[in-house]
């Protein structure tokens, strides 16, 4: 039996890998799916009431279910890596609380605007914007603190603040690309302009993270800039640059009379998110808390993980099936918003 076979015959070795992969995939799906509807919420106040209804209609069937992936990711982190969960939540208690306030405010605002009178509807639209902005900024801030390993220095907090703005910009970009795909007319034209602005900020943020990430750790620097790993990893930054170019090129050609290419910016933005995620994942592996706890140091007992894994085997396909079904049913352009 080879060394690799021996390692994977040991559940204490491979179960933590399976669960960190499941947690990471859940976070990735959340940032893509809830990212675009957070982006739509950030853009909500830039249009008139009729166009706001159109924007809300484009995310109405999806936004609540999109947050399921956040619940799954946090739940997996708690049950599979309780020690890491404690460290992360202790370091990020305030931004996590603010994020939850923002997400709750979004849910309340979305429901209240349905029954509100016109003058009150404007207020709840503003609260939906505030909730979306709060959730986006806090998620970006938490990412910045995580990348710097929860460093207490002033520079680390400044970077976290910049990261907050950059993540918000990335959500704005993918949200605008979603609107390009799901709407038409004047709103689509505005979405193209928003996407162009978001593209510049997102590219700037990705460049900044790419510079800071290797500098905060000699281990990460070595993983990216030593041979032959440097050659193997070249497709990730090249793919990111290519997707930025694809989005820019397509935006200059929109809107198209036959709506040709309206889906390209969104799927290119999704690919950009995926490339950035795998880049960060590679940088931090095998640490679940940067430079502090590896996935094996913080994992639950293998017996517990095996039981949880059986639960995931049944729950995860159900979530994927429901998500795929909802996107299939509500595919195409957003329909006029109607309440019964």
Quick take:
The chain is about 80% helix and about 0% strand.
Query: What fraction of residues sit in β-strands?
Result: under 5%
Low-confidence stretches: none
Radius of gyration: 21 Å
Count of folded domains: 1
Strand count, sense and closure of the main sheet?
2 strands, antiparallel
Can you characterise this structure?
With 340 residues, the chain is mostly helical. It has one domain. The protein has 16 helices and two strands. It has a two-stranded antiparallel ribbon with strand order 1-2. Strand 1 and strand 2 form a beta hairpin. The longest helix is centred in the N-terminal third of the chain and has 32 residues. The radius of gyration is 21 Å and the shape is globular. It starts with a helix and ends in an 11-residue tail after the last helix. The mean pLDDT is 86.
Secondary structure elements and their pairing?
Elements: H1 3-8, H2 11-42, H3 49-59, H4 63-66, H5 68-80, H6 82-91, H7 93-115, H8 118-147, H9 154-182, H10 185-215, H11 218-225, H12 229-233, H13 235-251, H14 264-284, E1 287-289, E2 293-294, H15 295-298, H16 302-329
Antiparallel strand pairs: 1-2
Helix pairs in contact: 2-5, 2-8, 2-9, 2-14, 2-16, 5-6, 7-8, 8-9, 9-10, 9-14, 10-13, 13-14
């Amino acid at each position: 039996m080879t060394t690799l076979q021996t390692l994977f015959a040991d559940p204490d070795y491979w179960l933590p890998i399976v669960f960190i992969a499941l947690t990471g995939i859940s976070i990735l799906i959340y940032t893509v799916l809830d990212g675009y509807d957070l982006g739509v919420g950030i853009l909500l106040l830039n249009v008139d009431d009729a166009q706001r209804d159109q924007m809300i209609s484009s995310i109405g069937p999806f936004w609540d279910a999109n947050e399921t992936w956040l619940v799954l990711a946090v739940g997996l982190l708690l049950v599979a890596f309780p020690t890491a969960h404690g460290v992360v939540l202790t370091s990020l208690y305030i931004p996590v609380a603010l994020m939850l306030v923002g997400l709750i405010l979004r849910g309340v605002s979305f429901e209240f605007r349905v029954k509100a009178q016109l003058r009150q509807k404007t207020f709840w639209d503003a609260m939906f914007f505030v909730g979306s902005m709060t959730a986006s900024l806090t998620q970006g801030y938490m990412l910045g603190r995580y990348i710097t390993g929860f460093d207490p220095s002033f520079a680390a907090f400044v970077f976290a603040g910049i990261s907050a703005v950059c993540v918000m910009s990335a959500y704005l970009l993918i949200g605008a690309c979603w609107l390009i795909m799901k709407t038409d007319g004047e709103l689509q034209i505005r979405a193209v302009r928003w996407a162009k602005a978001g593209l510049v900020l997102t590219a700037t943020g990705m460049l900044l993270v790419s510079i800071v990430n290797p500098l905060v750790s000699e281990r990460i620097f070595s993983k990216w800039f030593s041979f032959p790993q440097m050659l193997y990893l070249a497709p990730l930054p090249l793919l990111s640059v290519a997707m930025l170019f694809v989005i820019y090129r397509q935006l200059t050609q929109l809107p198209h009379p036959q709506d040709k290419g309206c889906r390209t910016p969104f799927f290119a933005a999704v690919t950009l998110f995926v490339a950035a995620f795998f880049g960060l994942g590679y940088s931090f592996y095998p640490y679940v808390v940067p430079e502090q706890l590896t996935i094996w140091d913080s994992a639950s007992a293998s017996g517990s993980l095996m039981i949880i894994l059986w639960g995931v085997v049944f729950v995860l396909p159900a979530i994927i099936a429901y998500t795929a079904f909802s996107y299939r049913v509500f595919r195409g352009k957003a329909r006029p918003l109607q309440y019964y």
